[in-house]
Amino acid sequence: MFWLLIVSLFAVLLARAYRNTFDLNIRRVNVAVQPSECRGESGSFKPLTVLHLSDLHMENFSIPAERIVRDFSGQHIDLIAITGDLLDRHKNIPKAVAYVETVMKLNPRLGTFVVFGNHDYVLAPPKLGQLKAELERIGCRVLVNQHVTLIHDGMPLHVIGVDNYSTGHSDLAASFRHVPTDGVRLVLTHDPNLVLEMRDYSYDYLLSGHFHGGQIHWPKPFHLVTMGQLPKLNMVKGLHHYDGRPFYISEGLGQTGLNIRLRSRPEITLHTLVPAGAPSALPTAETAAAAQMKGSAAKPHAATNPGKVATEAGRTLALE
Ligand SMILES: [Fe+2]
């Protein structure tokens, strides 16, 4: 009888954990940035909206791309950022490309940008090359330790794609080579532990994924202890700061290993970057008070150093 009870409880827990993979968490994050050299006489620019997807994991996901398109249809999106771990198996390349192509129906004004994660590097080099070529064929920019400069409202926007840190593929020097000093620097990378190495590389905001919010975060995500220093600093998801600079860790859309989540949800995030000193540009209901906090090991959902103020909405939109 005792064992029957235990097995029943475990089955209920597993069922709940599987159901969680369908419970999409849509987050909105507002970040105010002040680039070192401003753009234009007013020092202002229109809010920049970035739809952030990470860790799609075509082998284990429950959120169809069509749902993302439906949830964000009518929403102005300047840029889509995909921060790695699209798949493990080359047979899923068509599936991943079709998924991204569907999301691109949201018509991001400045384009869709992709960096690779550790799971993408499970593919043999020719297959990874095939994934890259297919993504570029549908119009993505795949950034491998390189940057591209766009113009947003008259301001240079440098999208810097740093390849995956945990597999030793990141090259910061190459990624930042020839990046102009004016404008906003938006870094895309998979493993957020990269920020620990970026003291000499200036940026305004960094988007990442990798940890899946622990995925099985119950009672604690003990398994993350092998995934670098950030989990030891209690930085596994959400908005954080290191060396006074804001970066974001998405919980990701898909799962690895078992297709379950506990105390974690699949996530898609809409980041809005606005010029520092223009709080009126942020939707009031979604703006949290910012507290000054210069240096490392910052708490999530707080901020920052003078001149670089970050706020987070801290609430989930009931779009489902
Ligand atoms: Fe992942």
Automatic annotation (TrEMBL):
Q: Name one GO cellular component term.
A: membrane
Q: According to the UniProt record, where is the region Disordered?
A: 293-320
Its keywords, alphabetically, are:
Hydrolase, Metal-binding
Q: For this protein, what is any one GO molecular function term?
A: UDP-2,3-diacylglucosamine hydrolase activity
Q: Which InterPro entries match?
A: Calcineurin-like_PHP (IPR004843), Metallo-depent_PP-like (IPR029052), Metallophosphoesterase_sf (IPR051158)
What GO biological process terms does the UniProt entry carry, in alphabetical order?
A: lipid A biosynthetic process
**Protein name, per record:** Metallophosphoesterase
